[in-house]
Amino acid sequence: MGNLIRAHMARLWKTPVFWLALIVMVPYGLGLSGSAIGDFQSGAASAGLWGQPLCGFCLLIGIILAAVFGLFFDGEYADGTIRNKLIAGHGRASIYLATLAAGFLAALALYGVELLVWLPRLPWMVKNFPAPEPGRLALCLGGTVLLLAGYCSLCVLFCMLIQRRSLLAVVLILLMVVLFFAGIQVQDAWETATHGGMQLMIDEAGQQQWVFHEPGQAGTLTAFLYDALPVCQAYRYMELDASPMMLVWSAALTILTTALGLVLFKRKDIK
Question: What does the alpha-carbon distance between residue 201 and residue 167 come to, in Å, rounded to a whole number?
Answer without folding.
Answer: 40
